[in-house]
Fold these 4 entries.
Entry 1:
Amino acid sequence: GDSVTQMEGPVTLSEEAFLTINCTYTATGYPSLFWYVQYPGEGLQLLLKATKADDKGSNKGFEATYRKETTSFHLEKGSVQVSDSAVYFCALNNPGGYQKVTFGTGTKLQVIP
Amino acid sequence: DGGITQSPKYLFRKEGQNVTLSCEQNLNHDAMYWYRQDPGQGLRLIYYSQIVNDFQKGDIAEGYSVSREKKESFPLTVTSAQKNPTAFYLCASKGLWTGEDIQYFGAGTRLSVL
């Protein structure tokens, strides 16, 4: 079945540091890929998405590129802020399945001033 | 504003008690989902529904029940058979025919056992 693997956290960075959170996936067909963010005590919000190979999703300074050859969708940001502290989830939606989304286990990011 | 409303935000359950978590959406989405979130385990799918009066078990359905009598509503009942109900519960919805392919989430309900 489909699966998503994320790097384990927590990740602790100083403000203005470069962020990479690794995500790889296993799926048949051509899934859409997503990054969601969860702030403490809240639900998940979509951060960015990509629907086909080589697409780059971007939002609020975050970027991720859909790499079919390496089955990866790594999240990057050039300069993190304290307000970016949250849990980040990589996810995929496989149209060939029954419309459920497969999530990774989440990576907690803590940014210190 | 369109969105998903979950209530209550906090809920306490006594031993042997059934409790119901509410989820309402005004996004006109066909599909709705319930997830359970435990620390360090990500999201696990409990139940999902693609159409009114129809729903399917997810990966951890034991001890839970749902109904889908209206398109807007997808309540989750945590029964006394669920021996470890303490968790954060998230409801989500998705439009199946919009081409948007995105799940939208509510703010969650935190359930604890007294």
Entry 2:
Amino acid sequence: DIQVTQSPSTLSASVGDRVTITCRASQSISNWLAWYQQKAGKAPKLLIYKASNLESGVPSRFSGSGSGTEFTLTISSLQPDDFATYYCQYYNTYSPRWTFGQGTKVEVK
Amino acid sequence: QVQLQESGPGLVKPSETLSLTCSVSGGSISSYYWSWIRQSPGRGLEWIGYIHYSASTNQNPSLKSRVTISLDTSNNQFSLKLKSMTAADTAVYYCARAQSRFEYGGNTGGFDIWGQGTMVTVSS
């Protein structure tokens, strides 16, 4: 089974910082990767699909890049509303089946 | 807009079967993949399984023998049954819709609509 590993698990940052979160797949997954934001007590919210496509309504400070085995989620200028936990998620087109990363908590520095 | 709402018991006894229903409002249950996902502190987000409007299904291999997912198109609902519940199954259970975009040939692999989640505790 293909595994996805996120890093770091926790990230301390300040408002205005550029933030980058990485997701690595154990083998090539093309661009079948999504990113989510989750706040306490809420369902995850889709930010990016197919590695680099911004979901409708998501601020443009969020961007995704990568293909194959290495992917990144970047927040260009961290805003107060962005302190949350972020997850990557791989979609296996052959099964179909979905696998989530372990999450990255972005906290106040 | 499309909304999802989970319903079911908040407390289940060990060895019993969990039954949850997801009601879809504001749109049709047709033409999409519908999934169940759970989240516990120790296991993070875990995909449980999906059902397609064509009635095809697939489950997480780690849960496959215990999971049944069904569709009720007349009521715009889909359901989860998880057998032989243990404390390890204590989690928030979400239903979610897999995003479909015509320009990408259908399923993009992300979940664009989620229910609010329902907490299920396994305890005697």
Entry 3:
Amino acid sequence: NAGVMQNPRHLVRRRGQEARLRCSPMKGHSHVYWYRQLPEEGLKFMVYLQKENIIDESGMPKERFSAEFPKEGPSILRIQQVVRGDSAAYFCASSYDSYNEKLFFGSGTQLSVL
Amino acid sequence: AQTVTQSQPEMSVQEAETVTLSCTYDTSESDYYLFWYKQPPSRQMILVIRQEAYKQQNATENRFSVNFQKAAKSFSLKISDSQLGDAAMYFCAFITGTASKLTFGTGTRLQVTL
């Protein structure tokens, strides 16, 4: 009964490269949420997805960031042309339904941009 | 705007003693849930306790309990009989019934000393 799985755990990229962060929700969960945690701060909501649909992307930067949750496979958070300010921990959470007071979090991906 | 304020960046408690972490929030909604999450150095976000706003009774989970003051919009966490394993960052968060995202505070770093 695996929890929310995120990989990689650590990702190092040079400025201008692309970063792909993967999240496999808990078994049976079809709702996925991405949060970002900057150093010494709390988590900030980025995007909420259901299978094949983006429900709420109000926290996503307008450029360079995109997210998907295909019918098959993990959810992907993609950051193009990374900059140093993108360095952060990115967390994925999943829930069984849209009542997300029962969220389960992954261990996060630490992105470091050199 | 919905906000969460944790006014104590750091707290320290002796093993076996009791400590209270404070949290205030602001929302115009009447239907919401409140949470305390623990984040140890492993970075995993662990749900400690949750409270439904419509419930007057304070939630309790073993050594963890909350003091929920709805009128004052206050949601403090009490840790009794503190243990070394309680040392971590603690985040207060809430979600409203109409929203799809958790709003987090900036966290309180708890140290537990011998």
Entry 4:
Amino acid sequence: RKEVEQDPGPFNVPEGATVAFNCTYSNSASQSFFWYRQDCRKEPKLLMSVYSSGNEDGRFTAQLNRASQYISLLIRDSKLSDSATYLCVVQGSNTGKLIFGQGTTLQVKP
Amino acid sequence: SAVISQKPSRDICQRGTSLTIQCQVDSQVTMMFWYRQQPGQSLTLIATANQGSEATYESGFVIDKFPISRPNLTFSTLTVSNMSPEDSSIYLCSVVGRGNEKLFFGSGTQLSVL
């Protein structure tokens, strides 16, 4: 089992739609969680951290469920510019290393 | 966030040769890392670049193949040695921002080995 698992997609949605991605992690001792965005042939860029209480940044909402060991990313009112690959990232408690998921590809269509 | 300059941005190399990738940060950072992203795959940590001492390599990566230098807190190099087509990948330098745990990436080096 991979340490961090994501559905690779692609998710094809129309503009204005709401889309949600889930990510599961295997190490229950993981401490920190992030979502990164990666555009084609570009480096990953931090989208948002994921806190236990959940957090929201504009159209983006991240949630953490420690009991079920998954995190989620919700995108409301999708824009064409949201098309990218979204990487789920988990930081181990012992090593501090960041473990990247395979990424979920989102394609927003007009 | 830190500004990270990585070069070259891309290169096409012959089998058996070596390529050195440079990473320059605009401020002193404690933690610097080198990642690899193979086509269609996620990022895999190669090693942690330690200032003034040998890098710490992850399982599956060795110093002879991926020698790393870190002469100071703002600069590091990764060399991909004796390249084969299987080394074709994107190589990314990354740093942890000062005062937080967030990871920032350089723009990456797209390497193709013929």
